[in-house]
């Protein structure tokens, strides 16, 4: 019995937590300290805060991965959720390991926008696109993150002649198509953008650099 209890403790999953990017919500955990961890299988359940019954996640029942996609199960983005994981090895089951409370709307990380650059003679036209959530409209297109939050685009320009690290904010607002004028011909510029959420005072990471020369 003691050996079983030791095994129960040593396979119990550690650090159970939700990770979320643009409402793609996944539960992650680390294996217990047992050496035979690679033979361990895991079982995942979830529930809405306040509910008494846990739901099994069928796709994550008896799996060897350390991650489980709960995007569809956590699609009511204002609700707080819990996830929990238990492990089994050689017929012995650990106790459940519980995540912290997770509210997608409050905790998801917003990704950067994408930028398309169109040239004209002395200016650059940028077409910005907000990141999209995994949730779909009736017609099948994915709903952009701007539907869920009051988001602003922030556009930065780097003049490669002056200083490769110095970013200048040239635009902040909601327009998806913007024009940057008064650029010097023959000078290389790099453009980056991010999403800014005033209400929570949070920013996305920067988009990848788009470099251009007039």
TrEMBL record:
Domain of life: Eukaryota
Record's keyword terms, sorted: Disulfide bond, Receptor, Repeat, Secreted, Signal
Gene3D superfamilies to which the protein is assigned, alphabetical: Immunoglobulins
Pfam family, any one: Interfer-bind
UniProt subcellular location: Secreted
The family this protein is said to belong to: Belongs to the type II cytokine receptor family.
Function: Receptor for IL22. Binds to IL22, prevents interaction with the functional IL-22R complex and blocks the activity of IL22 (in vitro). May play an important role as an IL22 antagonist in the regulation of inflammatory responses.
Listed CDD domains: FN3 (cd00063)
GO cellular component: extracellular region; plasma membrane
Source organism per UniProt: Eolophus roseicapilla (Galah cockatoo)
Domain Fibronectin type-III, first and last residues per copy: 12-107
InterPro entries recorded: FN3_dom, FN3_sf, Ig-like_fold, Interferon/interleukin_rcp_dom, Type-II_Cytokine-TF_Rcpt
MF GO annotations: cytokine receptor activity
Name the record gives this protein: Interleukin-22 receptor subunit alpha-2
């Amino acid at each position: 019995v003691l050996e079983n209890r030791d095994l129960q403790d040593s396979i119990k999953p550690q650090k159970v937590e939700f990770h979320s990017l643009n409402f793609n919500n996944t539960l992650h955990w680390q294996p217990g300290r047992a050496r035979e961890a690679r033979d361990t299988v895991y079982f995942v359940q979830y529930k809405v805060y306040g509910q008494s019954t846990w739901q099994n996640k069928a796709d994550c029942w008896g799996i060897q991965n350390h991650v489980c996609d709960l995007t569809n199960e956590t699609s009511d983005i204002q609700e707080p959720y819990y996830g929990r994981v238990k492990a089994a090895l050689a017929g012995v089951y650990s106790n459940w390991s519980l995540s912290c409370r997770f509210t997608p709307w409050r905790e998801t990380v917003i990704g950067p926008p994408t930028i398309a650059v169109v040239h004209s003679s002395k200016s650059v036209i940028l077409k910005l696109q907000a990141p999209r959530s995994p949730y779909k409209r009736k017609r099948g297109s994915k709903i952009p993150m701007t539907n869920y939050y009051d988001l602003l685009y922030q556009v930065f320009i780097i003049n490669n002649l002056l200083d490769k690290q110095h970013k200048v904010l040239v635009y902040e607002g909601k327009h998806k198509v913007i024009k940057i004028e008064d650029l010097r011909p023959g000078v290389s510029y790099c453009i980056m953008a991010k999403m800014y959420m005033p209400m929570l005072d949070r920013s996305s990471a920067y988009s990848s650099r788009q470099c251009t020369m007039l």
